[in-house]
C-alpha cells in the first residue's frame, strides 16, 4: 500500500475528530465576533487544540499578551515530555520544522504506533499523518467560521470533545500493548494530584511525577 494511503488510514480517526472539534472552534470564534480569518490563522500558526479553545475567552476578555503567552506555555508544557521521543527521528526528515510544529497529542499517539511497527520510511509516514491531521483541522475551522456567520448557534459543553479524544487515544494504546503499568501508574498519579492541587494546577506536576516514575520503571526493566 502507498505510504500516503497508509498514513491517511492511520490518521482517519484523528481527522474525523479534528474536523468536528475545529468546526466547533470556528463557531466559537464567530460567536466571539472575531473575523473568520483569525480562526484560520490560529489553526494554521498556533494549532494547539485545547489552547485555541481557551484563547477565544482570553481574547474576548482583553487579556494582556504576557498572560496569554504564559498560559500557552503551561497548557502545552506536556509537549516538552513528548518531543524527545522522536527528536532524533524528525531530524532525519526535510520536513523537520513542520513535524515539530504539527506535533500534537493525537499525532504523538499515532507516531508511537508507527515506530512500534518497525516498517520503513517511518518519518515520512509521520509527516503525512501530521499533514492530513492539520488539514482536517483547517477545513473544520473554515466550515465552523462559515456556518457561524449564517446560523446563530449556541454551544455548550462542546469542549468535552477534546477530553473524549484523549480517552480514545488511551484506549487505543491500552489495546496495542501488553504492559499496562505505565497507563495505570500515570492515571493514579493524575487522580491523586488532581485531588491535592485542583483542576487548574495538577497537569504539569502530574507529567513531571509520571515521567520520573516511568524513567525509573524503564531503568528497572532494563536491569531485569
Automatic annotation (TrEMBL):
Pfam families: AzlC. Its main location: membrane. The keyword DNA-binding does not apply. It is found in: Cell membrane. It is a multi-pass membrane protein. Signal peptide: none annotated. InterPro entries: Brnchd-chn_aa_trnsp_permease. The chain crosses the membrane at residues 7-28, 34-56, 63-81, 125-145, 186-217. Keywords: Cell membrane, Membrane, Transmembrane, Transmembrane helix, Transport. GO terms for biological process: L-valine transmembrane transport. The keyword Transmembrane applies. One of its GO terms (cellular component) is plasma membrane. PANTHER family: INNER MEMBRANE PROTEIN YGAZ. Belongs to the AzlC family. This is 4-azaleucine resistance probable transporter AzlC. It comes from Sharpea azabuensis.
Amino acid at each position: 500500500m502507498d505510504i500516503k494511503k497508509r498514513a491517511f488510514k492511520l490518521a482517519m480517526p484523528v481527522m474525523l475528530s479534528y474536523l468536528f472539534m475545529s468546526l466547533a472552534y470556528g463557531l466559537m470564534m464567530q460567536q466571539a465576533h472575531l473575523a473568520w480569518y483569525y480562526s484560520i490563522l490560529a489553526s494554521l500558526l498556533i494549532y494547539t487544540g485545547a489552547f485555541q479553545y481557551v484563547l477565544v475567552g482570553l481574547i474576548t476578555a482583553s487579556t494582556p499578551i504576557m498572560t496569554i503567552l504564559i498560559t500557552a506555555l503551561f497548557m502545552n508544557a506536556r509537549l516538552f515530555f513528548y518531543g524527545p521521543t522522536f527528536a532524533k527521528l524528525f531530524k532525519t526528515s526535510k520536513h523537520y520544522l513542520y513535524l515539530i510544529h504539527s506535533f500534537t497529542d493525537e499525532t504523538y499517539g499515532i507516531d508511537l504506533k508507527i515506530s512500534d511497527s518497525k516498517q520503513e520510511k517511518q518519518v515520512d509516514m509521520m509527516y503525512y499523518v501530521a499533514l492530513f491531521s492539520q488539514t482536517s483541522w483547517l477545513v473544520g475551522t473554515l466550515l465552523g467560521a462559515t456556518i457561524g456567520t449564517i446560523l446563530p448557534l449556541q454551544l455548550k459543553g462542546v469542549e468535552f470533545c477534546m477530553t473524549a479524544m484523549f480517552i480514545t487515544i488511551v484506549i487505543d494504546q491500552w489495546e496495542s500493548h501488553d504492559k499496562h503499568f505505565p497507563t495505570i501508574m500515570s492515571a493514579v498519579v493524575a487522580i491523586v494530584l488532581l485531588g491535592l492541587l485542583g483542576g487548574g494546577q495538577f497537569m504539569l506536576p502530574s507529567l513531571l511525577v509520571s515521567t520520573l516514575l516511568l524513567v525509573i520503571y524503564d531503568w528497572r526493566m532494563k536491569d531485569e
